[in-house]
Amino acid sequence: xxxxxxxxxxxxxxxxxxxxxxxxxxxxxxxxxxxxxxxxxxxxxxxxxxxxxxxxxxxxxxxxxxxxxxxxxxxxxxxxxxxxxxxxxxxxxxxxxxxxxxxxxxxxxxxxxxxxxxxxxxxxxxxxxxx
Length: 131
Known about the structure:
The chain is 82% helix and 0% strand. By secondary structure, it is mainly α. It has one domain.
């Protein structure tokens, strides 16, 4: 079982065992799905930036797939795609539709998204504590 599968299993277990807090767990799950979708958008923008620079996109493409799969796991395809589209629009505006400004996205999303994919349990706990 790889790290992504273990993370998914752990997140599902946490969400299923929090019956006393089902409303809060549902909200936390929705917020977590939104975070994953936002990161899928960030990695999609990164892929485009890397392509324009002639760089390897393999790791960023893998990150898109992982973030997308987790977003869908906690919502569904339609909602995830809508969230990604909205996030891409927002991210394009942040960098003024100019990929030479991609450092703005890296600064805002790079560390957050890396940590989200590496330690999704921490972000879920963040949302549960916030409820």
